Structures are given as structure tokens and as C-alpha cells.
Amino acid sequence: MINKNVLKIIIIMLLLIIINVIASSNQIVNAASYSSDINGIDESKYPGYKDKINELKKIYPNIQVFYTGLDWNTVIENERVHSRNLVPKEYGEEWRCEICGDKTYDSGWYCASDSAVAYLMDPRVYLTNTGIFQFQKLDTSVRNFKYRCN
After folding, report:
1. CB crowding 106-121: b at 16 or more within 10 Å, else e
2. Is the predicted pLDDT of residue 86 greater than 50, yes or no?
3. Structurally, how many domains does the chain consist of?
């Protein structure tokens, strides 16, 4: 049988671990935010974003950008796990993973190349008056449109 003092210490340690996990997860959530001010976008890090968002603001003046605070290279690296992202067999060889080649998954899908993942993850591809809606926060209307951006 476990000594009562040892049991108390274990419970206190578990509570401290839980509190630490909750506190650190709140910091991550607080790092992300919405803003209608795009002047703070660093053009050296995010070339072309401001121009595309300004064009969209002409159509949707209340658009807000969601800053995730995530590092682009880390996001791409995490998405590049082999067979996690697939492209249809109809796509050209440049879309296929250089390592997996012609290995197929799920009836003819190929593992996506690094450049295919980076291209499809790049929000600028979708910053059009119709493509933007795939990023719309579902509890908002077009008038109060919110856009997610890394």
C-alpha cells in the first residue's frame, strides 16, 4: 500500500503538470489573433499579401486577417510527411514526391512533392474574390468576413 504522504506528493505533482499544460496551451492560443490592420504584414516575409488583401478589401471592406503566429517552414515540414498529402494520378510528375515516385495510395493517388505541398499551402494562391471563402470563419457573414493567414 502506498504511504499517504507519497500519494499526496504524486497528486500535487500531477496537478502541477496539468496546470502547466493548460497554462502553456493558453499562451499558444493567445498568440493568434484577428486584425483588420494589414499594415503590420512584413513584405519581406509575406511578399504579395498586402496587395492581394487590399484588392479583396475593395470588395469586402470589413475583411479581417487571422495571424496564427506559426512559422511557415515548420508548417510545411510538418505537412511533408510521406503519404499524408496526396495528389490525384492525373496530375503531372512535378506534383509527385521525388522519393516515393510512382508508389500509389488509395487507388492511384501519389504522395505529393515538396513543391506541391508548399504551393497548395500558400494562402496567396486563394486570395481571390471566390477562393477566399474557403478560409471564412463559419460563424461570420460575408459582411464581417474573417480570413485565416499564417
Report:
1. eeeebbbbeebbbeee
2. yes
3. 2
Are 12 and 59 in a shared domain? no
Q: Phi/psi at 54 (nearest 5 deg)?
A: -60, -35
Identify whether the C-beta of residue 41 lies closer than 8 Å to the C-beta of residue 50: yes
- Owner of C-alpha cell 474573417: 146
88-121 tens-digit pLDDT: 999 999 999 999 888 998 888 999 999 999 998 8
Q: What are phi and psi of 147, to 5 degrees?
A: -115, 135
Sheet holding 33-35, edge to edge: 33-35, 64-67, 146-149
Range of the domain at 79: 32-149
